[in-house]
């Protein structure tokens, strides 16, 4: 029972942190665009982002389990982004740069 309570507490703290982050971004953009955003808008946007994050997490876990792994890898992320060519290209570019930097670091040793 304590585990369920702890899990719910973590979930609520994560949601509160997401609310704060979304609110900060919306406030910055509102100032830049000379617009106003209501707390209801921020709440609705936070719920939308939370739902999307949950869906992405489930998909990533499913991809890694299907591949017989217990850890999510960049291959899983690329598989998730396969239908969005622009996002897929950005992720591939990021991964390639990281691999190149890592290889360069090993070559110096």
- Helical content (DSSP H or I, runs of 4+): over 70%
Gyration radius (Cα, Å) is 19 Å
Low-pLDDT stretches are: none
Count of separate DSSP helical elements: 4
Number of strands: 0
State the major sheet. Answer: none
Structural class: mainly alpha
Distance between the termini: 51 Å
Element-level helix/strand string: HHHH
What is the percentage of strand-forming residues? under 5%
Rounded mean pLDDT is 94
Protein name: Kinetochore component CENP-S-domain-containing protein
GO cellular component, one term: FANCM-MHF complex
Keywords: DNA damage, DNA repair, DNA-binding
Family: Belongs to the TAF9 family. CENP-S/MHF1 subfamily.
Describe this structure in words.
- One of its GO terms (biological process) is replication fork processing.
- It holds the Pfam family CENP-S.
- Keywords: DNA damage, DNA repair, DNA-binding.
- This protein is mainly alpha-helical and 109 residues long.
- The chain is 83% helix and 0% strand.
- The model has no long low-confidence stretch (mean pLDDT 94).
